[in-house]
Specification:
Elements (H helix, E strand, L loop, with lengths): L1 H12 L5 E12 L9 E17 L4 E6 L4 E6 L12 H12 L8 E7 L9 H17 L5 H16 L6 H8 L4 E6 L4 E6 L5 E10 L3 H22 L12 H7 L5 H25 L3 H19 L4 H10 L5 E7 L4 E8 L4 H16 L4 E5 L6 E2 L2
Parallel strand pairs: 3-5
Antiparallel strand pairs: 1-2, 1-12, 2-5, 2-6, 3-4, 6-7, 8-10, 8-11, 9-10
Bound molecules: alpha-D-galactopyranose (GLA).
Length: 384
Amino acid sequence: MYDTVAKAFQDHFGHPHTVASYAPGRVEVLGNHTDYNEGFVLSAAINFGTYFLASPSEDTTCRIVAGDLMAEVSFDVSAPNPVTENTWANYVIGVLAGLQSHGEAQGGFNGMFLGNIPLGAGLSSSAALEMCTGLALGKLYGIEVEPLEMAKIGQKAEHEHAGVKCGLLDQVSSLFGQENALVMTDFRSLEVQTLPMGDDAAFLMCNTKAKHALVDGEYNERREHCEGAAAYFKGALSHPVAALRDVSWAEWEAHESKMPALAARRAAHPIGESERVLKGRQLLDAGDLAGFGKLMFDSHDSSANYFENSCPELDTIVNAAKGIPGVLGARLSGGGFGGSVVALIHPRDAETVAHAINAVFEKAHGHPCDISVITPSAGARIVG
Ligand code: GLA
């Protein structure tokens, strides 16, 4: 893929690139919608990602080409404002705007990106684009940014240029991923740890290709409900509550019937998820993959029942997975409302499990889902 985009860059701009970066997508393994509630998540960078190639331009014009479409967007470096057509460019433009608050970018650039992360699959193709853009343009302009700051630049691009009030999970996972390791993040302290995964575990990503309308709006609405529930607990509990992270499952149970019903349902999910991540970590440390997998199933049930961010296609896979020998656990991964299921398996079972899932999925939805083996992989980096 690198050779392909390097050649396309040369052909399109008439000169070679001077910097190149790569950033992977991510899989969320446990801890759904906990990041913006200041909770915990286990995730991994994946073996699919995006390259960004760039070189300085001769004036102040910035040209960005999406290498798969060969569509181009251009703007002046002094005006990195959101665009309403070719909106993929907003991730790049937003990151440039963020870099400019850390240093000066005076001249323009020629840039092209190309990746293999399926779009809309819940694998964070947008965060990968942000992080490879940030690394390449940071190097081009000589603007040095610490990884956590880079993650925040990507998040700000999502908030201000793409309209999604996401947390930091996707960017942190893309930056901090390591080969054969899970990334465990505390989204309050922003402490990031990597936990080695034995070679007896692998993930299957099952992309339903389902895209339900208003996904971004639903995401932002869930976030508002969580913030509303945190405000309730702040008034109701005797200890400080800055976010749902501060509320225990026992406290939720004690207040469930006293608070507005919808807020209670929504809050149950991130509160339960954060506790599941901490428990899951202990089980992983003890080598109990079956116990960990059970938490993944519980996570999905919590999504479906409390947060209502699942959909029939995701439920088909998870419900089938519960009865398929070799599946240790399965759940939706990422924002929800479509996208992918992540299943925990032993590597030797990959083929039979994929076959069994697709037999059920195709019968229910009339087409197969796309299933790939996911390997926890190294994080974003400069590659040239
Ligand atoms: C999306 C967001 C993340 C996170 C997940 C759900 O991927 O971008 O910040 O909230 O959904 O856990």
